[in-house]
Design goal:
Order of helices and strands: HHEEEEEHHHH
Structural class: alpha+beta
Bound molecules: zinc ion
Largest sheet: 3 strands, antiparallel
Number of helices: 6
Helix content: 40-55%
Radius of gyration: 25 Å
Strand content: 5-15%
Shape: flat
Number of strands: 5
C-alpha cells in the first residue's frame, strides 16, 4: 500500500471560504469559536476539502494588531479543535515551525477518539519495513507511522489505566464484602471498631463513585 494525503484541488470560492474560516474574536470564548465554525468545518471535512494538518485538527487564530488602525494579521494560538474526539485542546507547549507538538501530546495521552490514526497495524508494519529497507522516504507515510505510534501510546496508557481501575474495583469489592461480613457478624467487635468499618465503607463507596466518573 502507498499512503498519501490527498490534497484537494479547491476552486476559487472554496479557497476564499477556506481562508476565511474565522479566528477567535476578542470577546469570544474558545467554545463560542468552536460553535461558530463547527458546521462549516465539518462540511469541509466531510467533502474532503481540508488539507494537511487541517484534516485532523484546526488551530485557532487570533488577530494581532501592532498599532491602532493596523489591519492586523492572524497568529495561531495554543487552542485547537481535534476532530477525532471533537473537543477543544488547550496547551502551553505551543507550535514551532508549524509543527503542533501539543496535538501530538493530546493524541498520545488524552484523546478519546482514534480517527487521527488512519492506518492499520499491517500498514504500520509494512511502512516501517519499507522505511527501514530504504524503499520509501515518503513524508506522508512517516507521519502516518508517527500517528500510529501516538495512538499506540494512548491505547497502552488506557489499557494500563483500565487494569489499574479494575484492580481497584476488585480491591473495593473485597473490602466491601469484608465490611458487609463485619456488619452482619459484629460479634466481638467494639462499637468503635464498627464505626471505623462504616467509615471505611463510606471511603470505599466514595472511591468507587470517583472511579465510575473517570
Ligand atoms: Zn501549529
Ligand atoms: Zn482528540
Amino acid at each position: 500500500m502507498v499512503y498519501t494525503e490527498n490534497y484537494p484541488v479547491l476552486d476559487e470560492t472554496e479557497w476564499k471560504d477556506y481562508c476565511q474560516l474565522p479566528g477567535i474574536h476578542s470577546k469570544e470564548t474558545p467554545s463560542d469559536w468552536m460553535k461558530q465554525i463547527w458546521d462549516r468545518l465539518m462540511d469541509y471535512k466531510n467533502r474532503g476539502r481540508l488539507a494537511g494538518s487541517m484534516k485532523r485538527y484546526i488551530i485557532a487564530n487570533k488577530m494581532k494588531y501592532l498599532w491602532e488602525g493596523d489591519l492586523g494579521y492572524a497568529v495561531g494560538v495554543n487552542i485547537a479543535i481535534c476532530y477525532s474526539c471533537n473537543k477543544l485542546v488547550y496547551s502551553n507547549i505551543g507550535c514551532k515551525y508549524g509543527i503542533c507538538h501539543f496535538m501530538d501530546k493530546h493524541w498520545s495521552t488524552n484523546c478519546t477518539g482514534n480517527a487521527y490514526c488512519d492506518i492499520s497495524f499491517r500498514d504500520y508494519i509494512e511502512f516501517k519495513n519499507k522505511l527501514k529497507s530504504g524503499l520509501t522516504n515518503s513524508f506522508d507515510e512517516k507521519q502516518a507511522i508517527r500517528r500510529y505510534e501516538l495512538w499506540m501510546q494512548n491505547a497502552i496508557r488506557r489499557v494500563k489505566r483500565a487494569r489499574e481501575i479494575g484492580r481497584k474495583i476488585q480491591a473495593c469489592i473485597t473490602i466491601q464484602r469484608k465490611v458487609v461480613e463485619w456488619i452482619y457478624h459484629p460479634d466481638g467487635m467494639t462499637v468503635k471498631q464498627l464505626s471505623e468499618h462504616y467509615q471505611l465503607l463510606w471511603a470505599v463507596r466514595e472511591e468507587m463513585c470517583q472511579i465510575n466518573n473517570v
